[in-house]
Specification:
The protein is an alpha+beta fold and about 600 residues long. It is built from 13 helices and 32 strands.
Length: about 600
């Protein structure tokens, strides 16, 4: 089982993403110097765009030779953080990178023994950070960058001290007042006691931590091990109240701080994450905890399946976080060149925070080109919505987003282990005819293409295009699934989000739905739009006119009340057709409706 940052013991995986920002709660904010910010001089809103920067965790967690000579996670030190700060200022700052995020372990010695101040707050380890955390933040700021810091959620067991520790600026409160009498544990590693916010002392403790970070000058906080999520569920691991308390504390601390949550956050609480934070890790760690920083199979490739459900929830003020972009160091990254480009492409078009865990002092030329391509960065930072898959989540897939200027950002991915061709059909973008195509990575205009573009891609390869339509719009005919012929386990169910208030569900072990009398004027392969509902990723076979079916995987829509749609190719004859969705021997998504292009 993969985990995120902070381990209870050094042998376990810990992890963080230090992120700076909290949108709500700043009626007026204070500048670093403490002066009130007026409307005329107000700084940009926290998390107005996906943040860009660097995190210490990837190198901390790696077994790559030489990175952690003093034992697990020992890379994290003041000297190494400042080396990366200098390198970012020199190499990446001009491209928009600004956050230097210090991850788990800053308050622990090399053997992972914890340090706390007299008020139960984490205190810098004097060997890791001999100058102290404020001095490190000052050094980061002196380079024109922002500083990030990390905490696990809850009251760490080491800070409890038999309940006797007083709380800063909270007369009469001790650590005994913060927690439940049964000392129930919380967070992804059960390393902390759950805070009882029915006692005002609980908020006072969070206030004291937020004030400390603000006084030190930190601009970003990664709060880790948050649940529901972090592979934990149940009341003990519901940390929504903690996140709300942090938002409230930051709002009164006198300094804007970006609040980022980690990891594998529960989709069922997406509205809470959006309400109280500026970003949320939707998946587990991207790091492999092996002799490189990442590996394609460990979890980089998981993101293509897991990101689509979250797409509609990302935007200014709060972003879906896919974790660090470790594409800059070549051999140490553990990826092929094709994988490195695909990795960076997905993060950019999904509008994930774009931060790397690479050694910035040793970027190779290809890695530097990936991290500093201004056109790719512009896609990540633009006001356009995140891209999402327009085809099924098969090994060859297409993602797209419509931009405010009428162009489309279109990415082709070959996720199979062998070379393959991938085609983007203009009909999946809503038009037909000609379009001009520009290769974004290579900054090259490719010319005009009619109805589609096909590219041969290596294993795990990708292309990224800007497509400018020159053709005409399409008309579609809709067919409700519930009006079709049902067989096996299939049944009609109510669905408030569905186009006609109903859908066909219970498609499992032979359950089928056949949509009848699908009319087209001429024979050909059509990209039919399938609206579906699926709480997890599922496959279904699609066929026409009683022929053999082709299985397609549909990404999760997040829950069983949300509708998404993708296009799948189907060969149709002129006149009337039937289209069948067959669950086969497994469990299939629910089908809402299909839309088929009209032809003349």
């Amino acid at each position: 089982m993969r985990s995120s940052s902070y381990p209870v013991m050094p042998a376990r995986a810990l992890r963080s993403v230090l992120v700076l920002a909290l949108t709500a709660g700043f009626a007026t904010t204070a500048s670093a110097a403490g002066a009130e910010t007026t409307a005329e001089t107000a700084a940009p809103a926290v998390a107005a765009k996906p943040y860009m920067g660097w995190t210490s965790w990837s190198m901390q967690s790696s077994k790559y030779p030489g990175l952690n000579p003093k034992g697990d996670y020992s890379y994290l030190s003041e000297a190494n953080v400042l080396k990366q700060t200098d390198a970012m200022a020199a190499k990446l700052k001009n491209y928009g990178y600004e956050y230097i995020n210090i991850d788990a372990g800053w308050w622990m010695d090399w053997s992972w023994k914890q340090n706390y101040d007299e008020y139960g707050r984490q205190k810098a380890d004097p060997e890791r950070f001999p100058s102290g955390m404020k001095a490190v933040a000052d050094r980061i700021h002196a380079k024109g960058l922002k500083a990030g810091i990390y905490l696990p959620v809850g009251l760490e067991k080491g800070a409890y001290n038999d309940g006797k520790t007083p709380i800063w600026n909270a007369e009469g409160c001790t650590t005994a007042d913060l927690v439940y009498d049964d000392l129930r544990t919380t967070n992804g590693w059960d390393s902390a006691y759950k805070i009882d916010f029915s006692n005002p002392c609980g908020q006072k403790y969070i206030d004291s931590q937020a004030q400390l970070f603000a006084d030190w000058g930190y601009d970003f906080l990664k709060l880790d091990g948050v649940g529901p999520g972090s592979f934990k569920s149940g009341d003990n691991y519901n940390n929504v109240a903690d996140v709300a308390a942090w938002q409230k504390a930051i709002a009164t601390a006198g300094r804007p701080i970006h609040l980022e949550l980690s990891w594998s956050l529960d989709y069922g609480h997406v509205e809470d994450w959006k309400k109280y934070s500026n970003g949320w890790r939707i998946d587990t760690d991207v790091e492999c905890y092996c002799n490189t920083l990442v590996s394609w199979e460990n979890s980089v490739d998981d993101r293509w399946d897991d990101a689509p459900a979250w797409t509609d929830h990302s935007g200014p003020g709060g972003w879906n976080d896919l974790d660090s972009v470790n594409v800059g160091n070549g051999e140490m990254d553990g990826l092929t060149k094709a994988e490195r480009q695909s990795y960076a492409t997905l993060w950019a078009i999904a509008k994930s925070p774009f931060y790397t865990g690479d050694d910035l002092t040793k970027l190779d030329s290809y890695g530097l080109s990936l991290l500093t391509n201004r056109d790719v960065i512009a896609i990540n930072q633009s006001s356009a919505p995140p891209a999402e898959p327009v085809t099924a989540s098969d090994p060859q897939q297409v993602w797209a987003a419509k931009n405010p200027d009428g162009t489309y950002t279109v990415a082709l991915f070959n996720l199979s282990d062998a070379p393959a061709s991938v085609t983007a059909n203009w009909s999946t973008l809503g038009f037909k005819g000609k379009a001009s195509v520009r290769d974004v990575w290579n900054k090259e205009t490719l010319g005009s293409y009619t109805d589609k573009i096909t590219q041969a891609l290596p294993a795990h390869g990708s292309r990224l295009f800007t497509v400018t339509p020159r053709g005409t719009g399409l008309a579609w005919t809709g067919y409700e699934a519930e009006a079709g012929t049902l067989s096996g386990s299939a049944s009609v169910a109510d669905c408030s989000a569905c186009s006609d208030g109903r859908k066909v569900g219970n498609l499992y072990v032979g359950g089928k739905v056949t949509v009848n009398d699908v009319q087209v004027a001429k024979a050909g392969t059509y990209q039919i739009k399938v609206a579906y509902v699926s709480g997890d990723s599922r496959s279904i076979a699609v066929s026409a006119n009683g022929g053999g079916g082709t299985s397609h995987k549909f990404a999760s829509t997040g829950d069983w009340a949300t509708v998404n749609s993708v296009y799948v190719p189907v060969k149709l004859k002129a006149g009337a057709n039937t289209i069948t969705f067959d669950s086969g021997s497994g469990y299939a998504p629910d089908i809402d409706r299909i839309d088929v292009q009209k032809t003349s």
